[in-house]
Amino acid sequence: MNATTDRPALAMQYTFVLPADYDMAIIDRRIAEKGPALDGWPGLYAKAYLTARRTRGAAENLYAPFYVWADPSAMSGFLSGRGFAGVSDAFGRPQVRVWIGWRAQLAGEVAQAKFATREIAPIAPHEPLALEAAESEAADQAIERGALAAVAGFEPTSWTRVRFRLWRDSPEPRDRVALYDVGHISLGHPSLAAQKAL
Fold this sequence. Notes:
Elements: E1 3-6, E2 10-14, E3 16-18, H1 25-34, E4 44-52, E5 61-63, E6 66-69, H2 72-79, H3 82-91, E7 96-107, E8 115-122, H4 132-144, E9 149-155, E10 160-167, E11 177-187
Antiparallel strand pairs: 1-7, 2-6, 2-7, 3-5, 4-5, 4-6, 4-11, 7-9, 8-10, 8-11, 9-10
């Protein structure tokens, strides 16, 4: 499999917990209508539009998009812009989790992803912080096993690390690993040289 490898500046995710009886078709329509707006977005590597559903075994109904940013100013511009204001107006302003990137690999077929997994693990107080090599190797191995994207990073406020993967086929469930459906993949334009058309 041919994969392109870039070092991301930031990985980002926010989550909306929706009522147990929420009609998730509303979210599906929102993704279908608004998802392409970030296609080609300057400073963005990729955005995965993610959902989880009680009807498919999840504990809660969720809308939980995951972003990989090439440039912090692009992330800042998005969060202060119309798109994030719109989703905040619709569902309330969420807490946004951000991780400093160690590694991101996007396969050429990443837009074909239908499922995603996300694992967040604590970094123990006395654990050595030289984790980048091991996490990068784990990302490479995930691509070799068929992942269409593999992202690794850490967050030094609560001291956690994240492993995010995109898959064509549904992976086996694992403890403490969140499983999502993918509604759309937006591939951005990592260079800020392009001007936003929105």
